């Protein structure tokens, strides 16, 4: 397609109320709506944790966009072409070339998913007593940092913790906070700065290119590496193109390369931007760090040329990387999320503003103002959404934040959110309307949700995945929803 034809298509998409998808549907997967009675029984059996529900009992699954996207025909064709040689398969070399070409890192180490890359990186760089600053925590990232003796410090701008602050780059680092931490603990006690683009726990908020450059300059002065969580960096690149002066004429692919150019390495869950059902990578510029990481990959993941992935997965990721920067595709992805957010917000439902790239986040503390924080309003709201319309969402509040390792007390982050995470290329606008209708209906009847839940089982690590709860009042807490 020529440049003029691409421009014409983008203009057509932009003028639509919401852009038509730049693909045709070739295969479908049946889903069904369960009855209210089925949902009540299923939720009780799952301990009021929607993550423990059988997927076949979920109508619209917005639990995560990780590994749940629809792969393209070319990705599936790549699956059939996968070279399953144990060492040095041709699929690895195609995968390696794709990461180098689109992200710009020389040293590429495959892992089975993003948290495996976080584990390897943390084992290589973090020692007990180290301090790791970042633009808001993510659950698995902080867990690996703390398991290796590190202490996480949030240096994101204050506005990121305010769901109503409608700013274009709420993922930015507060340079003053970072400078203060360096002065307090010393640069030699900071193994790296951990940067997310976009910031998941803030609702998918991007970091600006200008702020990245400022962070890069400050860390260069002190000899501190910068490591990027690149899982949704393509989405971040799109926001830079749309919102930051001086970048509108650059392609998403060019902006992605420039984001990565401001860093020394990245961890990647290819289950997000790259559309893959499994896969990830760790990439760095330092060959000595790369060698150390490869030695650990052999211990924990597999040989350094497959890293826990089959050859077919390496092919799917490589193709997905190429597709991820296609601008009609990323535009459609962002606009679908915006459509859902706009419908919900126009009805007066409190959400995180602005809407991020991968999810609409409900502000549970405002939505269920009558439910105390110690009764986990976000967890309560995830249950209500499932009972009402079979929608599975994610709690991103006190349950996800876990307990302080020093005191054992619950952490209560400023943001108590329910994340409606949209898988890529999976659901139609009709599905988004069903979700919006359910959220609006619950908000209108929110006074019926008068109390929350408490733990009946709580794991010590990443408790939100397997915890179980019970409602503190069986009726009318959940009796008013489910129809």
From TrEMBL:
The keyword Lyase applies. It comes from the Bacteria. The keyword Lyase applies. Residues 61-437 form the Aromatic amino acid beta-eliminating lyase/threonine aldolase domain. Keywords: Lyase, Pyridoxal phosphate. The modification N6-(pyridoxal phosphate)lysine is found at residue 272. One of its GO terms (molecular function) is carbon-carbon lyase activity. Its cofactor is pyridoxal 5'-phosphate. One of its GO terms (biological process) is aromatic amino acid metabolic process. Signal peptide: none annotated. NCBIfam families: PRK13238.1. Belongs to the beta-eliminating lyase family. This is Tyrosine phenol-lyase. It comes from Streptomyces kanamyceticus. The lineage of its organism: Bacteria, Bacillati, Actinomycetota, Actinomycetes, Kitasatosporales.
